[in-house]
Amino acid sequence: MKMLYLIVPFAPLLGAIIAGFFGRAIGRVGAHVVTILGVTISFLASLVILQDVMAGNTFNGDLYTWLESGGLSLKIGFLIDQLTVVMMVVVTFVSLMVHIYTIGYMAHDEDNWPAGSLAGTNSYQRFFAYISLFTFSMLMLVMSNNFVQLFFGWEAVGLVSYLLIGFWSNRPTAIYANLKAFLVNRVGDFGFLLGIGLIAAYAGSLDYATVFGMSKELATITESVTGWPLITAICIGLFIGAMGKSAQFPLHVWLPDSMEGPTPISALIHAATMVTAGIFMVARMSPLFELSDTALSFVIVIGAITTLFMALIAIVQTDIKRVVAYSTLSQLGYMTMALGASAYSVAIFHLMTHAFFKAVLFLGAGSVIIAMHHEQDMRKMGGLRKYLPITYATMLIGAIANAGLPPFAGFFSKDSIIMAVQASQIPGATFAYVCALAAVFIGGLYSFRLIFFTFHGKERFREQAHDAHHGHGHHGVHVPHESPKVVTVPLILLSIPAIASGWLIGSFLYGSWFGDAIYISATHAGMAQLQAAFTGVFGMLAHGVVTLPFWLALAGAVTAWFLYIKRPDLPAVIKRKSGVLATILEEKYGFDKFNDWFFAGGARGLGRGLWKAGDQMLIDGVAVNGTARLVGWFSSVVRLIQSGHIYQYAFSMIIGVFVLLTLWLNRA
Amino acid sequence: MSSYLLSLAIWVPIMGALMVFAAGSNKNLARWTALGVALAGFIVTVPLYLGFDMSEAGMQFVEQRAWIPRFNIEYLLGVDGISMLFLLLNSFITIIVVIAGWQVIEDKVAQYLGAFLIMSGLMNGIFSALDAVLFYVFFEASLIPMYIIIGVWGGHNRVYAAFKFFLYTLLGSLLMLIALIYLFLSSGGSFNLLEWHQLRIDMTPQILIFLAFLVAFAVKVPMWPVHTWLPDAHVEAPTGGSVVLAAIMLKLGAYGFLRFSLPIAPDASHYLAPMMIALSLIAVIYIGFVALVQTDMKKLIAYSSISHMGFVTLGFFIFNQIGVEGALVQMISHGFISAAMFLCVGVMYDRMHSRNIADYGGVVNTMPKFAAFFMLFAMANAGLPATSGFVGEFMVILGAIKFNFWVGFAAATTLILGAAYTLWMYKRVIFGEVANSHVAELADINSREFLFLALLAFCVLAMGIYPYPFTEVMHASVDNLLKHVAVSKL
After folding, report:
1. What is the pLDDT of residue B256?
2. How many CA atoms lie within 13 A of A612 on its CB side?
3. Which of A425, A550, B35, B52 lies in the 20 to 30 Å Cα band around B348?
4. Rounded distance, CA A603 to CA B95, Å?
């Protein structure tokens, strides 16, 4: 079995190495065959491990000692339990689908590069190498049994995300977005590292099992320098890391911009897997978070703000990928709320269902974008359902699931989150509950707005013909057509769990699935209440249609229908009437402008100030060159004495003799 | 057998340099000779690692001979877990420098290569000398080849930079000389460092000794605020000079703290530790911001070096094992990464004759292989895990948090700053549209450039993925040092 654990991450790594270093030699087909083979092996091995874990076999063991110093022994190793294996299966499955999809999406990537660019040759192979490398990194992250390897994977997925957002490195927006993503994530990592540092300092170990074993003791300690309760400081530090990676307010700003990357990675990295690393991490750390109500309050409030306020922005976006991106932010907010409500298993459940339906939405959006020849503006689409029937059907499934309507996957997980938040007694839970309900309505609205705007209504792309749009606009209307099978098959395969994965709710949340992998303190009774109230999948369905969230989501969908099908003239009117409000949303609350001005501009200003005033003026100007000038001045004075005139020397000698004589005579 | 190893490490490169000089005007003969000497110089240091006794905290491979008996000055060499790795690093970097200067230096080839070999030998001497006079001679002598390298093969403003470098560092070491003489007198006529470590000294003289050493070593490290010579020196130095300067010379000062300041003046070290920590954090943060706004790539990397060296001094003065070992790891790692970064700039400079970030843009379109290497080193410079750059920073931050949360907090800002200045530069140079016709005509790295970049890439990754063998050899000596420093000498 241990061998199999190794195969899971290292098969994709091997694929990445072959495709990355020998891309030219093996060609395009070679590259996608070898990487897909690697991920397939990894997926199948994960399934075998899943079965093994279901049979009750978990594993916790070390691979090698990375470093030893100062009594701290840092190892690389694997922890395979119920939580890990869910992540492994989700990651490898979505990754496999995305790999296949990429064959179609990146087929003409050479068109995205300027003629003669050497970076453009073999870019296809490079892309496959990157997504396989990502799969490896993500697997190392989730399979880790210690904080060091967790941080390794954490940063490695960040690196690959950086490389992929900026994949089309000739686009100024792409290389702005990837730098921004990396730096904002580093702000999160800053907190993350401090949390890890506190653990190392007080627990003397960075091994999960050891640290969790000491969690009760840690909870009694006060941090000696700051006077903070240690466990709260640790958890908030770790959670700041999660805020960066999982794009929680106010570190969410990088995720919408990350849409500059090719769509397959938006699906894989920026929706299904990497951005959920923060959620996974907090769930993994449940033995620590459970001991700090302050941290849990912080988590639930941040999650609530993210859920509602990001959903609002999604309503005004016109770029199809950005709608999905803001929807992702909102959904991540739901997961975070669940964490704050001590409903870790629910968060992971939503993480899983979301991975499927959001991957469908993103890959579907990508399919639309291919069909529209890289047009992403929904205002130039409309009526596409006739031309893209499979994409339409799968995206509709994704949208219904995203809106949380029964019986699709999103309904079960999102409804469970809302119930858990309602049941939670943590301070801030009421606020979170209100935000969650409001976001349900908005979720219905933006999900169906996306569908109606893109696939229904007037065929607005026909109007583009008059603009003589570059390349293909000269000869009448370009009629979009359905994407090839390598694109549609992954869509279909992903939409199956987008429908059905919610039905696993019974065993997943209320069975004994997670076992010891998740710890819930006896004082946080929310999950226990949910379990008591759970009446099976059908019970939940029957109950679901009489509860508020269902009607809110439905109301959202109907509103979208009214605004975009029934009265398509209304949105413009509303926008005009709402004035400032619309502007605030379109400006995304001004975070980007503020960050650019305050943090980016401020740092540059400070740097320039320190450099000019500190280094150049004070240190070099006054101290260094000043010393040189002082020496120069002094020697110019001294030089005057050395005139070369004998009478001056004689005169000064005489004076000297007199002075000395006087002193000698007066000494008594 | 082992007792000649350190002498070999010192004299093989220096004697070899004479052979290179002898090759004289035949450029290729000089190059191949120099490469042979550099390889031989590296090979003789390998047994130091292989034959190293990790359980031994004291000096190993000791050589002891009378040198100037009248003043009790000895030819006394030895290495411990603190110094041993630096001989290997130094000898390794010498090979890289010889390869890097292959087609680039066409003027006075033999003298150029000879100067580097001599310097390599001298620096091995610094890391292994256990007699204060011997140390001082090596320490001062190493200035001369660097001064010449900058002054002869440097850029337009080389004379100013060479003088600034020389005077700055000379000024510092004069105070050290006074301290050495004081210690000679108070020890009853010994220059043996190990005996000095046992010397009882009162608080006031301890503080004065510490400060005298501080001036000498702080200039070398360099610590804020005596760092301004470094950017100038780097900018004017030829690529090889920058590599040795950053990879090895900066380590001499830091090494001095461990060999002199801490063990000789432990009470003063503790007393002045808050100041040292403050200066280190200023280096990390202040210099990080300054690095952000540099327009010259070499200056940017020079400032980044200062910032990274701030971690080294920080690690020393928090007095815990993970901090000190982290600082040592950071020194070695910085040797690889800074060397690689300067070589990367050199690769571009050789083609474009500009170090200005603004003259570049879109280099990845013409030099994709180079861009990949540069990406790796940039990420290592930003402290990405699985590169060597992460290990030292991580250890020092862990040590700092253990020492005092706020110190760790301040140090951890490097995570953001380091990434910001490194990757912003990378973005402007490598990514984007091809900026101008010069960039459009760039040729990707040749096999010689590939060779030295790949060697360094291997080191950076190996040390990041498996740092255990590096720290393993340090434990006994560092532990011993910390125990020694914990005992008052008053």
Report:
1. 92
2. 7
3. B35
4. 39
Instruction: Answer whether B228's CB lies under 8 Å from B140's CB.
Output: no
Residues in a beta bridge with B74: B66
Task: Specify the pLDDT at position A468.
Answer: 46
What pLDDT band is residue B304 in, cutting at 50, 70 and 90?
A: very high
What is the structure's pLDDT at A668? 59
Spatial CB neighbours of A536, under 8 Å, sequence gap ≥ 6: A506
Question: What's this model's pTM, rounded to 2 decimal places?
Answer: 0.90
Please tell me what DSSP assigns to residue B129.
Answer: B
Torsion over CA: B73, B79, B80, B86 (sign)? positive
Chain-centroid distance of CA B188 in Å reads 34
Q: Which tokens sit at B272? A: 């002045």
| Residues linked to residue A80 through DSSP beta bridges, in sequence order | A59
> What span, in angstroms and rounded, lies between the C-alpha atoms of A357 and A362?
9
What pLDDT was estimated at residue A472? 47
Confidence of residue A529 (pLDDT cuts 50, 70, 90): confident
pLDDT of the residue at A165 = 92
User: What share of chain B has pLDDT > 70, as a percent?
Assistant: 100
Three-class secondary structure assignment of B437-451: HHHHCCCCCCHHHHH
* Phi then psi dihedrals of residue B73, to 5 deg: -90, 130
Instruction: For chains A and B, count residue pairs whose Cβ atoms are closer than 8 Å.
Output: 163
A118–B384 CB contact, under 8 Å: no
pLDDT of res. A465: 53
CA of A212 vs chain B CAs: smallest distance (Å): 19
Contact A190 B412 (CB under 8 A): yes
Closest C-alpha to B233, from B298, B286, B184, B291: B298
A118 to chain B, closest Cα gap in Å:
5
What does the pLDDT look like over A458-515, one tens digit per residue?
Answer: 888 777 655 544 544 445 567 788 888 888 888 899 899 888 888 888 777 777 777 7
With CB atoms and an 8 Å threshold, state whether A70 touches B289: no
Collapsing DSSP states into helix, strand and coil, what is residue B266? helix
Helices B158-186/B229-236 angle, 10° precision:
130
Helix (H) or strand (E) holding A69: strand A59-69
Out of A200, A226, A624, closest to residue B398 by CB = A200
Q: Is A204 helix (H, G, I), strand (E, B) or coil?
A: coil
Does the bond joining B222 to the residue before it have cis omega, within 30 degrees of 0? Answer: yes
Amino acid residing at A187: V
Task: Find which of B169, B235, B277, B293 to mutate to test the A interface (most A CBs within 10 Å of its CB).
Answer: B293
ipTM of the complex: 0.91
Instruction: Quick: pLDDT tens for A19-54.
Output: 989 988 898 898 999 999 999 999 999 999 999 888
Closest CA to A141 of A78, A57, A74: A78
Give A-chain residues touching B379 at CB under 8 angstroms.
159
Task: Please state the rounded mean pLDDT for residues A422-445.
Answer: 90
Per-residue model confidence (pLDDT) at position A662: 86
- Report, as an integer, the average pLDDT of A242-246: 92
Q: What share of chain A is helix, strand, coil (3-state, %, to 5)?
A: 75, 5, 20
What is the separation, in whole angstroms, between the first and last Cα of chain B?
40
Token code pair at residue A588: 């995304």
Q: Which residues of A touch B164 (CB under 8 A)?
A: 624
Cβ-based neighbour number of residue A549 at 10 Å: 24
Beta strands A72-80 and A59-69 are antiparallel
Q: Which of A157, A415, A177, A117 is nearest to A273 (CA)?
A: A157
Distance of CA B326 to the CA centre of its chain: 15
Beta-bridge mates of residue B77: B63, B129
